[in-house]
Amino acid sequence: MSRYQTIPVWDAVTRAWHWLLALTVISGWLLGEFRTFSLMQWHFYAGFCTGGLLLFRIFWGMTGPPPVRFAALIPKPRALIADLRGFFRREPSGVAGHSPLGGLSVLVMLTLLIIQVCTGLFAEDDSLFHEGPLSDTISSATVRKVTSIHRQNSNLLLIMFGLHISVMVFYYVWKKENLVRAMLIGRKLVRVEQGRSDEKDGQQRD
Amino acid sequence: MNKLIGITPLILALCFSGTVAYVAHAAGNDPLLKAVKARQAEMTLRSFNAGPLFGMAKGDIEYDAGLAATLANNLLILTTAKNGRMWPVGSDNETYPDDTRSLPEIWTTYPDIADKGKAYVDAVTALADVAGTGLGELRSVIGDVGQSCKGCHDDFRAEEDY
């Protein structure tokens, strides 16, 4: 039985960033999937906002608080294997940040989103005669290739977000940890090291 | 015997070039492929005429009433030709994956595509009515044109995957 305490892990900027990103990505996906001639411009705006948020995240990953830094996201192989082994254990991860698997998942999602925004800038919709702002700068054959990547990558993103949400549900139901709440209020269950638990006012958790 | 071996490469080369020539000749005469080329040419014509109209509506190029009226009318004229011959049964992307993105559903769900075609004709007719009367008017109808292109492409054109 481990002891946990609920302590601040996610800073306000990271939380705001996360939910803004959720907003721009979901609306961007909807506006792209169900695009019409008049709505297409809004798909572009959603993409620009997502791009801005991603640029900020790159900056934040180098200068932000320790749990959001890239150094904390890149999992060490040994930690990743240990994390995988304990994945179905019915207890919270207890990490003061992303778990090794979680960090890896964040990196994958960020990478896919960067690909999505970058290809969108060069893509076209030849039915609605819309084109990304930079599509003039490359050949039309390349535009078609990039458009194809933009469309297929959106399916990969959809899979990743399905996984993202499934894991949140899995944590809540199976591992007894509300990660969504943690991303909302910033405070997260963190395992207290043995021997140090008495020093802090950590609360016992069943 | 040695002589025969000596001319083997020549025979092989003849066989190979003969096959290539035959295939090339057959493709050139394939009426289905000719139809594919013809309808692709028609799509190019539509897109060439529609392009500046969409450009004006989006503000990429300056609105020109005369040009807009001409292009919209061109699109309307293109809809009046009876081009059913461009869509023979079998000219789909299962038979010709390298040449066309036309899905077999065009034929298997017929006449669904005719409804899409009618939506396009209606949209272009409305476009031709007002395209030359002002940018606002052009903008009010151009979306329906794009939407009717998209409606057909979504259902009957394969996505371009690499």
Can you give a write-up of this model?
The complex is a heterodimer of chains A (206) and B (162). With 206 residues, chain A is mainly alpha-helical. Helices cover 60% and strands 7% of the residues of chain A. Chain A has helices at residues 12-33, 40-63, 70-73, 77-85, 100-122, 140-173, 179-185, and strands at 4-8, 124-125, 130-131, 187-191. A two-stranded antiparallel ribbon of chain A has the order 1-4. In chain A, strands 2-3 form a two-stranded antiparallel sheet. In chain A, helix 1 (12-33) packs antiparallel against helix 2 and helix 2 (40-63) packs across helix 5. The termini of chain A are close together. Residues 197-206 of chain A have low confidence and may be disordered. Helices cover 72% and strands 0% of the residues of chain B. Chain B has helices at 2-29, 31-58, 65-80, 105-108, 112-130, 135-156. Chain B is elongated. The N and C termini of chain B lie far apart (50 Å). The mean pLDDT of chain B is 89. The chains are: A mainly alpha (206), B mainly alpha (162). At the A-B interface, helix 6 of A face helix 2 and helix 6 of B.
The number of E-state strands of chain B comes to: 0
Order of helices and strands of chain A: EHHHHHEEHHE
- How many distinct beta strands of chain A? 4
Could you say which structural class the secondary elements and strand pairing of chain A correspond to?
Answer: mainly alpha
Largest sheet of chain A: 2 strands, antiparallel
- Average pLDDT reading of chain B: 89
User: Alpha-carbon distance between the termini of chain A?
Assistant: 8 Å
